[in-house]
Amino acid sequence: MSASDAAPLRQLRLDALVETPESFGSSYEEEHTLTLADIQEWIVPANDGAMFGVFTADALAGMVGVGRQRKLKMRHKAHVWSMYVAPAHRGRGFARLLMHAAIAHAQTMRGVRQVQLSVTANNTAAVTLYASLGFTVYGHEPEALFVNGQLYDEALMALPLAGK
Ligand SMILES: CC(C)(COP(=O)(O)OP(=O)(O)OC[C@H]1O[C@@H](n2cnc3c(N)ncnc32)[C@H](O)[C@@H]1OP(=O)(O)O)[C@@H](O)C(=O)NCCC(=O)NCCS
User: Fold this and answer.
1) Which CATH number does the domain housing residue 138 bear?
2) Which is nearest to 79 in space by CA: 37, 44, 120, 50?
3) How much is the pTM?
4) Residue with the nearest Cα to atom 19 of ligand 1?
5) Can you tell me which atom of ligand 1 is nearest the CA of 129?
6) Which residues form the domain of 81?
7) Residue (of 92, 110, 103) closest to 157 by Cα position
8) Is residue 116 lining ligand 1, measured as CB closer than 6 Å?
9) Atom of ligand 1 nearest to the CA of 86
10) In a structure prediction context, what are the per-residue pLDDT tens digits for the chain, which is 164 residues long?
11) Which end of the chain is less enclosed by CB atoms within 10 A, N or C?
C-alpha cells in the first residue's frame, strides 16, 4: 500500500475493530481518533515493516501488516498483525494472498528468522489459514483478551523462515 491509501485503510481498520473486536488486541475506542498521518506511519513504517491491501474495483477489501521487533535482542523476529478481509469478500483467497505478501516481505528483512502472530484460539478460519501456511502453535495464553465482558484465549503461532 502507499501513503495515499491511508483513508480507506483507516476505514477498513475501524470496520474490523467493530465487526470482530475479539480478533484484535486493539479496540475501536483506542483507534477512532487516529489521524491519517498516524495511519500513514503504519503504511510507511520506520522499521522495515509494511502493510498490504487487496483492492477490488472501488474499495479496499482486505489488509495485513507485517513488522519486525524493534528491540536489539528481538530484531530477528517479525510479526503479522491486522489481518482482515471484509465479510463480502471472504472465501475468495484474499487472506491467503495477503499472507503470502506479508511472509515474502518478512523474507526480505535482513536477519529475520521467524514470523510470529497471535490469534484468538477459537477463530477456526484464521487458525486454519495460518496452519495451512506452515505456522505452528508454540504457546497458548489463557484469558488473553477481555472483550465485551467475555474472556478469550489466544494461540501463539510462528513460522520459521526457510534459509534463515
Ligand atoms: C480469517 C479471514 C482473514 C480469512 O479471510 P478469507 O479471505 O476469507 O480467507 P481465504 O479465502 O484466503 O482462505 C484461506 C484459507 O483460510 C482458511 N479459511 C478461511 N475461511 C475459513 C472458514 N470459514 N473455516 C475454516 N477455514 C477457513 C482455509 O484454510 C482457507 O483455505 P482454503 O480455501 O484453501 O480452504 C477472515 O475470515 C476475517 O477477516 N475474519 C475476521 C478477522 C480475523 O479473524 N482476523 C484474523 C486475526 S488473527
Assistant:
1) 3.40.630.30
2) 50
3) 0.97
4) 125
5) 16
6) 3-160
7) 103
8) no
9) 39
10) 999 999 999 999 999 999 999 999 999 999 999 999 999 999 988 788 999 999 998 899 999 999 999 999 999 999 999 999 999 999 999 999 999 999 999 999 999 999 999 999 999 999 999 999 999 999 999 999 999 999 999 999 999 997 65
11) C
